[in-house]
Amino acid sequence: MTVQEIAPDVFRFAGWLSDNWATETPYCNTYLLRQGDDLVIYDTGAFRDIRQRMLESIASYQERCRGLYVVLGHAHYDHCGNNDILEELPFAEKHLLVAEPGIARLDVLAADRAGVLEEMAYYDVFAHFPFRILRLANRISPRLALALRGWAVARAWKGVKPMPHLAEPLRLDQCQTFAFGDVQFQGWRLGNLYLFYDGAHVPEHCCLFDPERRLLLVGDLTVEVNPEGTVSSLSALIDYCDRFARMAAQGHVEVVGDGHRSEVTFRQLFAKYRQEYGVEPFGESQLADVVNGKDMAVEFFQGFRDYYASLRDAVISAHERLGIASVEAIAAALAEVDSPALRLKRALELPRFPSLIRGCVTSVLKDRGCRRIQRGKEVLFEPASG
Ligand SMILES: [Fe+2]
Ligand SMILES: [Fe+2]
């Protein structure tokens, strides 16, 4: 586990990611900032090694700092699993902050189950799942497959401590509007820092911006597995990557860290998937641990905006060609389409990563409010007009 100082008094604790998601549980990059008399942590990651290194770094600041603020970019298990460090640390002021929709979602197993259930209203999720046991269970009952999946997830996330009883909501009715250049955001102030509420990757997702250091932490806004089905909004992912690209182009952003960027992992993955799928990174920024410099920041956000927009446009155009259609039919039509974004999406498909083409389809159908039509056992969707 490596620790890097990515800006003065800002540390990145490297997370863990492999393309064997089902058996090697990942955890996110974690960031620690000193802000005057306070320490701020953006996401706590999960599992023990990162926790120990964070405690050591925090201890070196303890004499000089009064307050400890843990800001959760979102409540996924791999970002909130070490929230229990709050109980261990003797700071005069301690807070665990999460955007309001994340409070309930800190019950991570219930939130995960609710996400899959919502997805199941769109298509038969387990019929084509890459695990035979779940496909077999699904033939008896989709609810049995869901319960089995829940059991496996609970085992994999056993060490995760999200501590929902400590969490304080960043209330949506207290969101303010902030502008940097000609770009506007909704969110909250935390001393000199800004928390931008995007709700894109999941409904509570927010990013952290430090205008003095020109530092932007974007969590899972820029993770190639997006969108994660109905829990994500592909249109919001496109919108916020576009806003950040414009903000960077206007000179407000110099350093960008995200939830899973890893030079080691991504260089290996692209080398492997170049052979297998013909995928190429959109630029060096996609392969770096941390994005450095204005030009690289612009490339990074434009690259993700274009990736997400290409996925959305491919789904819309396949749906329009088919007319009223099921998620399965749209996914089958997409299998015939070649584009750099779809090649990458195929390469990441479960069980390598928690990424499903069908999930991408459902995110677009939900975003566009496509009308649901039940014909016997079949669930169909009408293309949205306009
Ligand atoms: Fe994550
Ligand atoms: Fe996530």
What topology does this entry show?
Blueprint: E1 3-7, E2 10-13, E3 30-35, E4 38-42, H1 48-61, E5 67-72, H2 77-80, H3 85-88, E6 93-99, H4 101-105, H5 108-120, H6 132-140, H7 142-156, E7 167-170, E8 176-180, E9 183-190, E10 193-197, E11 206-210, E12 215-217, H8 234-249, E13 255-257, H9 263-277, E14 291-292, H10 294-322, H11 327-335, H12 340-347, H13 357-367, E15 372-375, E16 378-381
Parallel strand pairs: 4-5, 5-6, 6-7, 12-13
Antiparallel strand pairs: 1-2, 2-3, 3-4, 8-9, 9-10, 10-11, 11-12, 13-14, 15-16
Helix pairs in contact: 5-7, 6-7, 8-10, 10-11, 11-13
Bound molecules: fe (ii) ion (2 copies).
Task: Please tell me about this protein's structure.
This protein is of the alpha+beta class and 386 residues long. It has a single domain, classed as Ribonuclease Z/Hydroxyacylglutathione hydrolase-like (Metallo-beta-lactamase, Chain A). The protein is 39% helix and 20% strand. It has helices at 48-61, 77-80, 85-88, 101-105, 108-120, 132-140, 142-156, 234-249, 263-277, 294-322, 327-335, 340-347, 357-367, and strands at 3-7, 10-13, 30-35, 38-42, 67-72, 93-99, 167-170, 176-180, 183-190, 193-197, 206-210, 215-217, 255-257, 291-292, 372-375, 378-381. The protein has a seven-stranded mixed beta sheet. The chain has a seven-stranded mixed beta sheet with strand order 8-9-10-11-12-13-14. A two-stranded antiparallel sheet has the order 15-16. Helix 6 (132-140) packs antiparallel against helix 7 (142-156). The longest helix has 29 residues, at 294-322. It is globular, with a radius of gyration of 21 Å. The model has no long low-confidence stretch (mean pLDDT 95). The site of one fe (ii) ion has 4 residues, from loops. Residues 28, 76, 78-79, 220, 259-260 line the site of one fe (ii) ion.
